[in-house]
Design goal:
- This protein is α/β, with parallel strands linked by helices.
- The chain folds into two domains: about 260 residues, Enzyme I, Chain A, domain 2 (Orthogonal Bundle); about 325 residues, TIM Barrel (Alpha-Beta Barrel).
- Helices cover about 45% and strands about 15% of the residues.
- The chain has 23 helices and 18 strands.
- Bound molecules: phosphoenolpyruvate (PEP) and magnesium ion (MG).
Length: about 600
Amino acid sequence: MSVQIFGIPVSRGVAVGRAVLLTSARLDVAHYFIEPGTEEHEVDRLRAARAAVRAELDTLQGELPDDAPPELSAFIDVHKMLLDDPQIGRETAAWIRQRRYNAEWALTAQLEVIARSFDEMDDSYLRERKADVEQVVERLLYALLGSGPLRANAALRGANGDPLVLVAHDISPADMLQFKQGVFGGFVTDVGGKTSHTAIVARSLDIPAVVGAREASRLIRQDDWIVIDGDNGLLIVDPSPIILEDYRVRKQESGLVRERLKRLVHTPARTLDGQAVELLANIELPDDCDAALASGAAGVGLFRTEFLFMNRATALPGEDEQYAAYRRVLETMRGRPVTIRTIDIGADKPLEPIDDYRDGEFTHLNPALGLRAIRYSLSDPAMFRVQLRALLRAAASGPLRILIPMVAHAGEVRQTFAQLELARAELDAAGQAHGTVEVGAMIEVPGAVLMLPLFLRHFDFISIGTNDLVQYTLAIDRADESVASLYDPLHPAVLQLLGQTIAQAHGAENWKGRPVHVSVCGEMAGDPQLTRLLLGMGLRSFSMHPAQLLAVKQEVLRADCARLAPLAQAVLAEFEPESQARALSALAA
Ligand code: PEP
Ligand code: MG
């Protein structure tokens, strides 16, 4: 029977595919399709792993001290029995033979099936045996992967089989990043909000995604067919043929719309009344520059460098490695301006798996209000200067702007510039070449808006991070689906702060006596439904995921700023939801 599940739409489009259910602990396992004809070889790998685990358990049992409690041996017997159970042996081999999953993937797929049947048991003793199965599977995975950590290569390779969609309780931004080269046609998670970093990375993959679908990973079973409607935040499990057909047509239609938009790639972004608008790309990794160029972006408006620091088993990237990454971005962008943000670690972007690096510092009660972004960098000046030196060196290869996240205090401004000076001096002392940079502040907390008179005296430019500005203005955790309905970029308080920031920046000169460049790099900039409002507020620089750029450009081309300015002011004057809605529809007309 077909079931509908509602969640939060975070990345548009429609995906239809078979569910691959992953629990977070098992996201680290490699998932790939084996070559046709190699199925029996893969089944042999599984067989060998079972033999190895059996030998391991025998040894364990044989070495039990005489005074060990008798339950221990019985416990090992249970594991040996489970190892011989056809559900683990035969059924896992069936995933390999029928779906051509690699053995690790087949095991985790089968584990989900077994775990589900345990969950449905009435007897609580039997239900708890699920943990035994998980432990046996875990042993098998280790045997398959050798004794190294499970976080092996999670590269996902495509095959000609059924399309796949990923269903998980939660996916960290770091794990989501690993799926960039993946074969998944869509993503669903139980938790998360529209501007959580996981959702942002999903959007950058430009594939349909729904988060905050609460019960999805419990209701959806391994291998179920599901439709992900990323426009409406809807999942349909086991869709009827009529629904499937309907979604196939919609998928085709949205494909056509995208094709049509591609014609605008080389069209200059200019409004009807001749205002030039800068459309920039947000990127997470240097490789994303290709998508940025393909979308016709005028440059990079936000490189979230913290993603370079994630998914690392041991050390943080050193100066040379960072320098190479930044330089590559500048070179790939071929002279277009590139804005690189210093790391924004913390909150929903912990630095796992290097958890021992800053032992337990991220387990605070309110991580979004804790040690993140510039606070994090300033708390470890040596690490901060590694990044600053790498940036200054890269600046010799092209126009580079450094962006400081979440700055709010005069002390942070002072310390940031002091660290920058020190980094320059260190490079000079080492005889290293470096270039000039502009330095900008992200406006992400209401306090920063009120500090603009000071910021504008020190920084060359500002970039408004609306994702956090909404979060901190309304006190809504952007990653928490339970308050997602209150996360409202059109809240009058948010619009007041946005309007005030743009107006103040336009009326000011920076410390060099030049006009202050102001852009928006939060998700609002990439929402074509907000383009007119932002243009009307005076914004002329938007930075967004490349996938959204052409839809925003289409809005720019149809806009008349002279007409929109008073209409946007009318929106800003409204505080009642009904009158604000009327003012917004006048703007859209
Ligand atoms: C923002 O807060 O709007 C922003 C662009 O930064 P991030 O989403 O990485 O926090
Ligand atoms: Mg932010």
